[in-house]
């Protein structure tokens, strides 16, 4: 496994270097790296490991103070901060393993942030090993071309291809199998989901979301049936309700999720948030300001979001889809979800500073208008 070998060679072998991991969203970059870090925990104990999700930064430049803070350096700004980091990383000491997830977020004018970071392992006496994870496939070609000029120093590249149907099937089986008891999804349904998702994107997150959503649909159906329960005069217990998620459920969810998207072919809005996610984030931001707390229930969030959509005359998604959106945002490190028995009661909290989030959202007139109107 390349990741493991890279850490072995560079961190344990005390050779500075960099690795650039690319791949479409949901291809397992974050999952694999987390797993490798966990597996190598003991071996890496002698070095310093810093993992930063760049999605949580207010701007590309703020990666430097964030890193300084993690390394326990006095926090400075601008050039001064970069200089103190360079000094620290070329001084004697243990190897420093820096993992930057969602690296796309560091793209800046002239790409100086990325250049600076990827040049560090090449400084004389450097003890930095840098691993960057990015969703954009052409980031290196476009941005790191300049680094190619130093043959010794250009980052190693590792590409994560989309999951195949077989891999997705295995991932789904494994993840759904963690839920005790009978298989929740019947196997035809599961394979169908894997086949469809692999045909579109190979996005494991999507596949898992589709299954989760299908389970919710079935739960709703079951609840609907139990409401009808007391049969007039009947002593026969209600017939056992179908608890399994079948092909039909999955197929329905799939067409909901992919139906229009397949036709519209809207792809690659990676650097910004899709419209509905933006509106949802705005709603969360409004709620956070309004109630001075970072944590709200999904029900409350969905209410506010629906209200905002009405006011902006946008179509609103239902609560189950809202949960899927929230899950997507969670996987990008923007917020955290504490799941509850009932979706409505799940707790959603913002992981970004409000100012940082607003900065990320501020680019559209729509966002400005939603935030300016506030909550009534
Ligand atoms: N090999 C795997 N086994 C089990 N789950 C996986 C595997 N790869 C990815 N996943 C799951 O799929 C989802 C997306 O993976 P993730 O690593 O976040 O993708 P990326 O970082 O490339 O966008 C996560 O929920 C993750 O737990
Ligand atoms: Mg990721």
From TrEMBL:
InterPro entries: AAA_22 (IPR049945), Cdc6/18 (IPR016314), Cdc6_C (IPR015163), Cdc6_ORC1-like_ATPase_lid (IPR054425), ORC1/CDC6 (IPR050311), P-loop_NTPase (IPR027417), WH-like_DNA-bd_sf (IPR036388), WH_DNA-bd_sf (IPR036390). Residues 281-361 form the Cdc6 C-terminal domain. It is found in: Cytoplasm; Nucleus. SUPFAM superfamilies: P-loop containing nucleoside triphosphate hydrolases, Winged helix' DNA-binding domain. GO terms for biological process: cell division; DNA replication initiation; mitotic DNA replication checkpoint signaling. Pfam families: AAA_22, Cdc6-ORC-like_ATPase_lid, WHD_Cdc6. The keyword Nucleotide-binding applies. GO terms for molecular function: ATP binding; ATP hydrolysis activity; DNA replication origin binding. GO terms for cellular component: cytoplasm; nucleus; spindle. Signal peptide: none annotated. Keywords: ATP-binding, Cell cycle, Cell division, Cytoplasm, DNA replication, Mitosis, Nucleotide-binding, Nucleus, Phosphoprotein, Ubl conjugation. It comes from the Eukaryota. Belongs to the CDC6/cdc18 family. Interacts with PCNA, ORC1, cyclin-CDK. Interacts with HUWE1. Interacts with ANKRD17. Interacts with GRWD1; origin binding of GRWD1 is dependent on CDC6. Interacts with CDT1; are mutually dependent on one another for loading MCM complexes onto chromatin. Interacts with TTC4. Interacts (via Cy motif) with CCNF; the interaction takes place during G2 and M phase. Interacts with CDH1. Involved in the initiation of DNA replication. Also participates in checkpoint controls that ensure DNA replication is completed before mitosis is initiated. This is Cell division control protein 6 homolog. It comes from Lonchura striata (white-rumped munia). The gene is CDC6.
């Amino acid at each position: 496994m390349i990741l493991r070998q890279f850490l072995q060679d560079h961190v344990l072998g005390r050779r500075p270097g960099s690795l650039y991991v690319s791949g479409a969203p949901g291809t397992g970059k974050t999952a694999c790296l987390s797993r490798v870090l966990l597996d190598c925990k003991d071996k890496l104990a002698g070095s310093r490991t810093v993992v930063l999700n760049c999605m949580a930064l207010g701007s590309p430049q703020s990666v430097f103070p964030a890193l300084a803070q993690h390394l326990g350096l006095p926090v400075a700004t601008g050039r001064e901060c970069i200089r103190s980091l360079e000094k620290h990383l070329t001084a004697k000491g243990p190897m420093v393993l820096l993992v930057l997830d969602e690296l796309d977020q560091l793209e800046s004018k002239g790409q100086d942030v990325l250049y600076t970071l990827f040049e560090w392992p090449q400084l004389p006496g450097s003890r930095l090993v840098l691993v960057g994870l990015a969703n954009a496939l052409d980031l290196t070609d476009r941005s790191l071309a300049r680094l190619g000029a130093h043959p010794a120093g250009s980052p190693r590249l590792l590409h994560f291809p989309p999951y195949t149907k077989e891999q997705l099937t295995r991932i789904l089986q494994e993840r759904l199998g963690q839920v005790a008891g009978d298989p929740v999804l019947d196997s035809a349904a599961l394979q169908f989901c894997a086949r469809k998702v692999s045909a579109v994107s190979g996005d494991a997150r999507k596949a898992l979301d589709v299954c989760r959503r299908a389970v919710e649909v079935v739960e709703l159906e079951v609840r609907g049936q139990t409401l009808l329960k007391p049969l007039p005069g009947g002593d026969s217990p209600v017939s056992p309700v179908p608890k399994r998620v079948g092909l039909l459920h999955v197929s329905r969810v799939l067409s909901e999720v992919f139906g229009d998207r397949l036709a519209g072919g809207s792809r690659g809005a990676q650097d910004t948030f899709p419209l509905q996610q933006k509106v949802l984030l705005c709603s969360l931001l409004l709620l956070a300001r309004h109630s001075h707390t970072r944590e709200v229930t999904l029900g409350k969030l969905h209410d506010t979001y629906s209200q905002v959509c009405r006011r902006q005359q946008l179509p609103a998604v239902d609560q189950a889809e809202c949960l899927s959106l929230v899950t997507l945002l969670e996987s990008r490190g923007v917020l955290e979800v504490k799941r509850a028995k009932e979706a409505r009661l799940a707790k959603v909290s913002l992981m970004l500073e409000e100012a940082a989030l607003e900065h990320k959202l501020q680019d559209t007139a729509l966002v400005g208008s939603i935030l300016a109107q506030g909550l009534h």
